[in-house]
Amino acid sequence: MRLSSLVGQWNVYSTGIVTLLVLLVTYSITSRVEPEIHPMLLARQGHGSPVRQEGESPIYRSNAAPHSMPLNSGLSVKEPGASKWSQGRDGDLRDVWRKAISGSSEGDGVKGKGRILTVLGREKVIEHKLEDVTRQINLVGQYISSQGGKKVAIYLPNSVEYIATLFACSFYNITAILLPYDRSDASIISMLQQSGADTVITCPGTFPFDSVVKSYPALRQLIWVVDEGSKHLDWNEVPKGMGGKVNVSTWQDILNDQPQTAGTELPSADTQVAAPDVVMFWVSKNDSVEEMVRFTQGNLVSAISAQLVAIPTKERFSPADLFLPAAPLSSSYTLVLTLVAIYNNASVAFNSVAGASPDLTLATQGVSPTIIVTTPETLSKTHAETKGMITSALSSLSHWIQTRSLVQNGVMPVASFLASYNDSLYPRLGTEPGKLRLVYVAHPADGNNSPLLSELTLSDLRIFTRARIIYALSAAPCAGAVAQTQFHDYRVSGNGKGSHFGPPVSSTEILLRDTGSYKITDENYTGAVVVRGPAIVGGEATLGLVATIRDDNTISVI
Ligand SMILES: *[C@@H]1O[C@H](CO)[C@@H](O)[C@H](O)[C@H]1NC(C)=O
Ligand SMILES: *[C@@H]1O[C@H](CO)[C@@H](O)[C@H](O)[C@H]1NC(C)=O
Ligand SMILES: *[C@@H]1O[C@H](CO)[C@@H](O)[C@H](O)[C@H]1NC(C)=O
Ligand SMILES: *[C@@H]1O[C@H](CO)[C@@H](O)[C@H](O)[C@H]1NC(C)=O
Ligand SMILES: *[C@@H]1O[C@H](CO)[C@@H](O)[C@H](O)[C@H]1NC(C)=O
Ligand SMILES: *[C@@H]1O[C@H](CO)[C@@H](O)[C@H](O)[C@H]1NC(C)=O
């Protein structure tokens, strides 16, 4: 069929194209290309401890974290004037924001200063000055404290208000409670009860105010984040008999009731006072249970520090990058990477539809992100749709050549005539396709319904998105990632159906333990994953996941 349709459409251009193709194929097969990373570094991606306990595998660590050294625990923040050789402190989220605004001066664009953008649809993008975000952090933090708020639940889509509230909580000694967005009324009430929130920050239309007031009498304060269109409405009008005990205000009023000059200075850096915990909820994939997880600031900064060093130095997030969280900020992996971007002066764009829909084109509209975090569901859908369109002989050949470049040569395919041949088949990501360079995606450890992305699927996606992909394993008690694949790992082993999560990151170590019918032997390390380290709540956790250590010391689920 395919051949006959090809013959039917044959003309002089086809002859030219095919001749070129044959030449290029010959060239790409005969020419030697240096791989982007030495194959030895991919053949042994982590290292096990020299001894193992009975019923346990050796303890595995990333190559960047020798067993003789402590795991990566924080940002190593040095006070100004401290000696270059002094040991910095681990720091907390306040240091992330202080770093972002350091060096940012008024007026002309200072190099090394990130921007924060809000994407409102395809046409409209609003830029927020970092000083304005600092003002929001101060005024909202002061307001909540003055009203006696101690535990603030954030029920918002990805937005600048979301991240500003998180920082406000750290600066003003308030526990931030990050609620997953778009949940049923019953789950919202259950999460408020579990966490004991006294204040909620949310937007009208999505938060079931009346039923929360009825079923959750501990609520004392509610702050609406209203969008431009509904600013004129008076949200202070609380229905009589309903919210009598709840003080209602709006984000905009809190900012506008203060003079422009108020709240421009962050509270002074007092390193003695520990910043409060951050509460998150892990939604188990059968979608019925929200498990509450209380991260310390130490858990979060250690996860941030591990991500800072997880990719090669010259590929790190920089002021030239535009980072877009295309997954909900209520998941710790997305949140940690967003904080990494802010810490490294990258620009960050927030789009409220990101995470709500599994459409990557929609989530990246309006801007041209260079780095995104997304979900396995989204990538799986993108893969199925794009793969389905690669049907013609020429596009299949082009795909084969690009796969060969990745898998055999270990290099990302260059945008050659062939690689760009029928790019119209590929998803359009961002306003200027071709800018995207890195995609992060995390598989949830208990994700029964979350699709596992195979090595072959990831290889295809590298071609479709023209970006590198880092595939991570995430778990409820772990801030950020338990383990994740290497930046330059494009290998596809065997039939490509398998998948792995690379070695542990530098803030975690992993071992496998006997479980059920799986027994650890000298020949085969297969068992329940136990993860330890400063990024783990309580320092150690057993994940409900059976995995094995492959020959290349990467973690692979059974
Ligand atoms: C971010 O900006 C600060 C202050 O300008 C600078 O010291 C730092 O090196 C920058 N970091 C990166 C990763 O560019
Ligand atoms: C911070 O809040 C906690 C609990 O609300 C309280 O115990 C602690 O004393 C507060 N710390 C400071 C420095 O106010
Ligand atoms: C509401 O705000 C007023 C004025 O700030 C305050 O006096 C009152 O105690 C608050 N009520 C609650 C339930 O927090
Ligand atoms: C979902 O998972 C929880 C805990 O793993 C379990 O208790 C519950 O029965 C499950 N619900 C469904 C509908 O499978
Ligand atoms: C290239 O893509 C366009 C748009 O999807 C399609 O109409 C055309 O048939 C494709 N050409 C080949 C040779 O696959
Ligand atoms: C180890 O055992 C598991 C489960 O029985 C199996 O899937 C895996 O292939 C084995 N690995 C090796 C290296 O034999």
TrEMBL record:
<dbReference type="GO" id="GO:0004467">
    <property type="term" value="F:long-chain fatty acid-CoA ligase activity"/>
</dbReference>
<dbReference type="GO" id="GO:0016020">
    <property type="term" value="C:membrane"/>
</dbReference>
<dbReference type="InterPro" id="IPR000873">
    <property type="entry name" value="AMP-dep_synth/lig_dom"/>
</dbReference>
<keyword id="KW-0472">Membrane</keyword>
<dbReference type="Pfam" id="PF00501">
    <property type="entry name" value="AMP-binding"/>
</dbReference>
<keyword id="KW-1133">Transmembrane helix</keyword>
<dbReference type="InterPro" id="IPR042099">
    <property type="entry name" value="ANL_N_sf"/>
</dbReference>
<keyword id="KW-0812">Transmembrane</keyword>
<feature type="transmembrane region" description="Helical">
    <location>
        <begin position="12"/>
        <end position="30"/>
    </location>
</feature>
<dbReference type="GO" id="GO:0005783">
    <property type="term" value="C:endoplasmic reticulum"/>
</dbReference>
<feature type="domain" description="AMP-dependent synthetase/ligase">
    <location>
        <begin position="137"/>
        <end position="538"/>
    </location>
</feature>
<protein>
    <recommendedName>
        <fullName>AMP-dependent synthetase/ligase domain-containing protein</fullName>
    </recommendedName>
</protein>
